[in-house]
Design goal:
The chain is mainly α. It has 2 domains: 2-17 and 41-101, Helix Hairpins (Orthogonal Bundle), CATH 1.10.287.990; 114-213, minor pseudopilin epsh fold, CATH 3.55.40.20. Helix content is 48%, strand content 10%. It has helices at 2-13, 42-64, 74-80, 83-101, 114-124, 127-140, 187-190, 194-201, 207-213, and strands at residues 145-151, 157-163, 174-180. Helix 2 packs antiparallel against helix 4.
């Protein structure tokens, strides 16, 4: 039954019927599909990356054909577009940021250092306090969406809850870490227990990647 629901969901997501020569392509993961297990299963990754993200990529390529957006970056499309193009482009950008933040637990850097660590202590009190606030925002967000750790132009950190495809770029902020709370990100592994999926996510977040994004605006 669950597999049938997933297939139906994917069919409804795929609105274009033909895909032109790709402007954007599906990102390659820097780890094996099984590398994040048991925190994120291979089955979840194959659906989340190979099905859902691929659909968003296909939709963007169809929607930008013969428009002024065809030469733009995802970031610029996300800032300027509206409607279906905004939703799909933002989801491609969101997922790219999300997947590239992850790493196998054995090799991921489990806590930030340097300027990012100092900023977290200044703005949240401690790393653990920030994690608690992020988890609370992610578990309490109604419906589907994203929770972000983002940086403003002064280098200050904020937590931003966004419904659907929302991204901090729309607010002039730099996204550092995104937590995907759409059900397709966790339902295969955790069913409706979003809180547990977030708790398990910490072990596979590579804070080196988040550090590298900080202070680059």
């Amino acid at each position: 039954m669950f597999t049938l629901l997933l297939i139906c969901n994917l069919l409804f997501m795929t609105t274009p019927t033909e895909t032109p020569a790709a402007t954007f392509t599906l990102i390659e993961l820097p780890y094996e599909m099984s590398a994040l297990a048991p925190n994120i299963s291979e089955e979840t990754l194959r659906y989340h990356h190979g099905k859902h993200l691929q659909t968003y990529v296909n939709n963007v390529n169809n929607l930008i054909a013969d428009t002024r957006f065809v030469t733009m970056t995802l970031e610029d499309i996300e800032r300027q577009a509206d409607g279906p193009l905004y939703n799909n482009a933002a989801q491609v950008l969101n997922h790219n940021l999300y997947f590239l933040t992850l790493a196998p637990a054995a090799v991921a850097k489990h806590a930030p250092e340097g300027p990012l660590a100092a900023a977290i202590k200044r703005d949240f009190g401690s790393f653990d306090a920030m994690k608690v606030q992020l988890a609370k925002a992610a578990t309490s967000l109604f419906g589907s969406g994203w929770v972000w750790l983002a940086e403003n132009r002064n280098g200050n950190l904020v937590i931003l809850s966004e419904s659907n495809a929302g991204n901090p770029l729309r607010h002039g902020l730099t996204p550092l870490l995104g937590i995907d709370v759409w059900e397709h990100a966790y339902y295969i592994d955790y069913r409706n227990d979003r809180a547990r999926s977030i708790d398990q996510l910490w072990d596979v977040i590579d804070w080196q990647v988040v550090e590298d994004r900080y202070g680059k605006h």
